[in-house]
Design a protein that fits this description.
The protein is α/β, with parallel strands linked by helices. The protein is built from eleven helices and twelve strands. It folds into two domains: 293 residues, Alkaline Phosphatase, subunit A; 50 residues, no CATH class. 33% of the residues lie in helices and 14% in strands. Helix 5 packs antiparallel against helix 6 and helix 8 runs parallel beside helix 9.
């Protein structure tokens, strides 16, 4: 197992809804792509050409300089055996690293537990969103969910600071430790105490942060700016999670997909600049993923649910380039109009866990999987 520093961070960006892989990494020199996509295909002259056969969606231009610097790795054909086109089931597979059954815990929840076995830091993992993704759920593992870091905290809307302090003191007494509590009450008590501790710690992050980067006014930019604030506050957080979407582009795909990737790529480029400004780029790995790709043929206005997709890892320590085999578009090589997955997503997880975080990936991804050389 690789020996590494303890301060490496992992930032997850989930593209909710099933990002269209073929219109993200475009096989612009393959005539079949244009045959199958007369409506949503991206014209060859608009593609950001980064390879003799493949290019990036033109809306990803804000990230092009990161590709040129070798800071982006593209994982082609990513997916899992026996793909499921249900958003809910496919996301659950990715969340738990369990394609064949309903998993008991999230892969990031297990990761947080391994990073902090005693639960000493209630902020080892932080989700930036209103709902906690199942990827971060594991019994006994505290994870904070932050909607807006500027207003985050317990009872933040109480204007009278004395009244708020008294309410928090009451909260602390209610949820404080007691030998007389039963098991359920004890769990609730631990949850409440952790929330109190986490809120107090996170409230300090914006006050410690300054940056010359001007983020766009979008939800994903807000989330990544919040992540940068927590990182620069040095609160011991290792795992950060954000979501953006929906990428469920059944109709109006050319416009909708372009807007989505403009928002994501602009936010990622600004976030990376912020990391560089704070000297954190080399200690941060960003994973961008979506639950599945889209069908090869367009439906006249967009694309429907498919299987094989694409993921990205981004960071100062990343060895950029293409990884995994790009799925074939030949009709004889795919069934039911789907791109066949060529890369098991658990290989990407295992690489990050072992080579980046220094953890044993086997019990987290439930098996041994070939690893990549992007780190």
């Amino acid at each position: 197992m690789t020996s590494i520093k303890k301060d490496r961070s992992l930032v997850i960006i989930e593209l909710q809804g099933g990002n269209d892989a073929l219109n993200t990494v475009v096989p612009y020199n393959n005539g079949l792509y244009y045959d199958f996509r007369p409506t949503v295909g991206i014209p060859q002259e608009e593609v950001i050409q980064v390879h003799g056969e493949f290019g990036l969606n033109p809306s990803m231009s804000p990230m092009k300089h990161l590709w040129d610097q070798g800071k982006i790795a593209v994982i082609n054909g990513i997916g899992y055996p026996s793909p499921n086109r249900s958003h809910f089931r496919s996301r659950d597979v990715w969340y738990t690293a369990e394609p064949d059954k309903i998993g008991a815990e999230g892969w990031l929840g297990a990761t947080i537990r391994d990073l902090d076995p005693t639960g000493e830091n209630v902020l080892t993992g932080v989700n930036f969103g209103r709902a906690l993704p199942r990827a971060m759920v594991s019994k006994g593992v505290p994870v904070a969910s932050v909607g807006n870091l500027e207003t985050y905290g317990l009872m933040p809307n109480m204007k009278d600071e004395t009244a708020r302090r008294q309410a928090l003191e009451s909260f602390s007494r209610i949820y404080g430790p007691s030998q007389a509590k039963d098991a359920v009450a004890q769990v609730l008590g631990e949850t409440g105490t952790n929330a109190l501790r986490g809120a107090d710690m996170l409230r300090t992050a914006p006050m410690k942060y300054s940056s010359d980067v001007e983020y766009a006014d979008t939800p994903i930019a807000d989330a990544l700016r919040n992540i940068a604030q927590v990182m620069s506050a040095d609160l011991g957080t290792r795992i950060y999670y954000a979501q953006h979407g929906s990428f469920d582009t059944h109709s109006n795909e050319r416009n909708a997909h372009a807007k989505l990737w403009t928002d994501v790529s602009t936010a990622v480029a600004d976030f990376y600049q912020d990391l560089e400004e704070h000297g954190l780029a080399d200690e941060t790995l960003i994973l961008v993923w979506s639950e599945f790709g889209r069908r090869i043929r367009d439906n006249g206005a967009g694309t429907d649910h498919g299987s094989g997709g694409v993921a990205f890892t981004i960071g100062g320590a990343i060895h950029g380039g293409f990884y995994g085999e790009f799925p074939s578009l030949r009709p004889e090589d795919h069934s039911e109009g789907d791109l066949h997955f060529t890369t098991d997503f658990r290989s990407t997880y295992a690489t990050i866990l072992d080579k980046w975080l220094g953890l044993d990936p086997q019990p987290i991804v439930h098996g041994n999987f070939e690893q990549f050389a992007f780190v």
